Amino acid sequence: MNLSTGLGVVPLDLDDATQVAAADAFVAGRADATPFHRPAWLKAIARGTGNRGDMLAAVASSGQIAGLLPLTHMRSRLFGQALVSSGFAVDGGILADDPAVIAALASAAEGLARDRGVGSVELRGGPLPGQGWTVHEGSHLGFVRPIAADDEAELLAIPRKHRAELRKALANLALRVEVGRDARLVRAHYDVYAQSVRNLGTPVFPAQLFCEVLSAFGEDADILLVLDGDRPVSAVLTLYHQGRVMPFWGGGVADARRLRSNELMYYRLMGHGRTRGMKLFDFGRSKTGSGQAAWKKSFGFDPEPLTYHSWSASGERRDINPSSAQYQRRVDLWKKLPLPVANLLGPLISRGLG
After folding, report:
1. How far apart are CA 298 and CA 42, in angstroms?
2. What pLDDT is stored for residue 283 in this prediction?
3. Would you say the pTM of this structure is higher than 0.85?
4. Which CATH code is given to the segment(s) 8-140+307-318?
5. Which residue in 8, 84, 136, 340 has the fewest CB atoms around it within 10 Å?
6. Comparing 8-140+307-318 with 148-278, is the CATH topology the same?
């Protein structure tokens, strides 16, 4: 797509090392970039779920990248199709400042959707793409705050009531923490996470997805596991990006609430991030008004409204809102499934949710 400004929008070849390196360099040079803008994320999602990844790049006449838009082509018989930036992520969207570049990337995304017969494009963050796009505000909240100077300061940064719960976990000598990337931790994380999301009424993602993300991000991702004796009770897969600790896929078994092991998990993760030189703890997004959002606020995080954007040729979007009546009926049914059945069926459904 040629532009009067001398820019062109082209799809990058995610198997070309030179093009991937150029995209990574552009992402690394921007403070508003996220790990979900990296080619590594698109490739891991494609390998782990089968959903195709596309990276649109606005390229100047000099050959330099002026903007990026990562897209995952989500396909589901239950939920329909969409191009999503970024798929299976909590952020994404157009990575650019120049209005002409933003408009060009948005137009290219619309064209790609039309060419593939995809009904809509969903952008989870980034600037307003332009006319014809709908702004969605107020449905989700983000939670970020600085990591304290040491463990004691971190403890004091947590509001008194929640701090008291954490102190109970710290006093429980049966609880211990392990951090790493080996196969044993990967299996333990998946077992805990599968139980956690089933209990919440959500289909679990394919186990291969977690393996692919860990592989693609290398030392920029790891797993923190909390054990009660030898029994895994809480676990989280975390990404590290430009000074941010980003716990992403985490949860606990039914006994985690009694043990306060989730409180211990995130507290220890803050300390682990500090040793890695991280400055911010990014608790990710939660639905406005949800129990999860209230829990994060009680941990000392102030909520910030998030803004998303969508485009649709027909004016309709996928129904993947857990608060909708239709979706809630599915949630209630899923909670009743035996865990082996949920783990068998979940990946077949969740790979199309994203």
Report:
1. 33
2. 95
3. yes
4. 3.40.630.30
5. 340
6. yes
- From CA 129, how far away is CA 15, in angstroms rounded? 28
For the chain, report the end-to-end CA distance as a whole number of angstroms: 28
* Residue 120 CA, distance from chain mean position: 20
Q: Are 14 and 39 in contact (CB under 8 A)?
A: yes
β-pairing verdict for 280-287 and 244-252:
parallel
CATH topology classification for 148-278:
Aminopeptidase (3.40.630)
The residues of the chain scoring below 70 in pLDDT are 1-5, 78, 315-337, 339-354
Q: What is the pLDDT of residues 42-63, one digit of tens each?
A: 999 999 999 999 999 999 988 8
**What is the rounded CA–CA span in Å between residue 75 and residue 23?**
25
| Burial class of residue 219 in the structure, from the number of CB atoms within 10 Å of its CB (0-12 exposed, 13-18 middle, 19+ buried) | exposed
Q: Where are the domains of the chain?
A: 8-140+307-318, 148-278
Between CA 73 and CA 64 the distance in angstroms is 26
